[in-house]
Amino acid sequence: MSTFTSEIFQTETMTVPGGTETILRGGRDLFPLLPDALHGVRRIGVLGWGPQGRAQAQNLRDSLAGTEVTVSVGLRPGSASADDARTHGFTEDNGTLGDWLAVAAESDLVILLIADAALAAEHEKIFAVLKPGATIGLSHGFLLGHLKAIGSGFPAGHPVIAVCPKGMGDSVRRLYQQGATVNGAGINASIAVHADPDGHATDRALAWSVGLGSPYTFATTLQDEYRSDIVGERAILLGAVHGLVEALYRQFRLDGADPVTAYERSTESITGPIARTISRSGLPAVRAALSEAEQELFDRAYSVSYGPAREIVAEIYDEVAEGTELRSVILAEQRLTSRPMSRIGGSTMWSHSAEVHTRRGTTPAAIDPLTAGLFLATMMAQVDEFADRGHAWSEIVNESIIEAVDSLLPYMHARDVAYMVDNCSRTARLGTRRWGPRFQAAYEQIALPAVDTPADPTLIKGFLDNPAHEALAAAAELRPSVDISVA
Questions:
Q1: Is residue 201 part of a domain?
Q2: What's the CATH code of the domain at 464?
Q3: Is 481 among the domain residues?
Q4: Does one domain contain both 318 and 389?
Q5: Locate the KARI N-terminal Rossmann domain: which residues (predicted)?
Q6: In this predicted model, what pLDDT tens digit does every residue of 136-164 receive, in sequence order?
């Protein structure tokens, strides 16, 4: 689904390679339309208080302030998150905090933001208490994949919608708060309408997205969303970038660089100047910023790493599509009930993070051509794989490029890549642990040893002429004039 219509909001058409897509431009000026767009929803129940639950509950509450729509939070008995929810204004006394099943039973829109594995295990309890005709809301298609795998489905008679922010929960909240002074600041989101028995599901999804502060909303399907989202986490958004900086750091150290310089040329180059250049000027601008000699190295690095990266992205996609990756998450969650998940930042490179950060004011990082070639080859491998699998261009550029450079990489720059991995969702953490080492091995064993091989002109032309640049430029016109603050 790349088109939609609305009874309430004025939509726009965005030109993308091969056609057009419908989008909705967000903004606080649309908040007065939200109650009508929700079509009878007077109580929204947000189940869960993880990063997305915390952000979405607060954003929706703030956007709907002064209306007759109440936003409440539902938590399981004994939840360690209850005190934090109270601190942020959701309390039993004002009727906005309660038992998860009780909140589900009294809500007209039930947004399911508990952990993926927990949702797979507990969804039947939630479905059993829903009001007749209550709308089921998701921010991830994981549950659809699980239901398909077990031969089940969503309960009949209930609208099923998804609003999927293209960034982590902290970004969703932080940019919303920054948007108090910059209309439209936020994280882009996709919507999906999986079931629409009353004919109002699309408007409800759009209202939810606008209420989160999304600068622009585009359409997808629930199946396409969970495939692109889970693959992206394991590839360029987290898994691949972690494997890449580990491999590059080792390579630079072998070439004689001191630890701080090796960190700057690998991690700092990606999270700083490469990410900023892509965000503001697009992918070809990274190569254009290099000298002629550096472009030659970029081309060689791109040529030897695109193929191995594309193979892994395709393998991940196949495993997500056939359910193997989802089952591995559920099995891993079952094992983790008896022991905590280990942290990923154990290599020596991360001990130099603080020193690198203190040098930023005196020695700003530059675009390293070797790093840039490997990183952009991996990013384009994901872009091309998604395009070949039939994803809409809005989804491709958001899941492969915009989410990376405008949400995740800024946080990695402020903390570090390993910190980011260890503080994201459990599903993403598990996927990064599984696939990050695969990418690292491909760079170390296949790409880097062959980096002196002459560049493949066909691959470089494919990069420079890729239709993704047109799609990204169209999306960039909707970008708010504010960068995320991660202080």
A1: yes
A2: 1.10.1040.10
A3: no
A4: yes
A5: 24-220
A6: 999 988 899 999 988 999 999 999 999 99
At which of 219, 248, 281 does a domain end? 219
* Residues 186, 258 share a domain: no
* Cβ–Cβ < 8 Å for 473, 283: no
Q: Which range marks the domain in which residue 180 is found?
A: 12-219
Encoded amino acid at 275, one letter? A
Angle made by CA atoms 320, 322, 327, in degrees to the nearest 5: 70
Detail the residues annotated as belonging to a binding site: 229, 233
pLDDT in tens, 195-208: 999 999 999 999 99
What totals of helices (H) and strands (E) does the chain contain, helices first? 25, 10
In this structure, the strands spanning 19-25 and 43-47 are: unpaired
Total structural domains within the chain = 2
pLDDT at site 338: 56
Positions marked active-site: 140
> What's the CA gap between 378 and 375, in Å, rounded?
5
Task: Report, as an integer, the average pLDDT of 460-487.
Answer: 87
Residue given tokens 């979405």 in the structure block: 56
Q: Where are the alpha helices (DSSP H) in 400-464?
A: 403, 409-414, 417-422, 426-442, 457-464
Please state the pTM of the whole predicted model.
Answer: 0.93
- Binding site for Mg(2+), residues? 229, 233
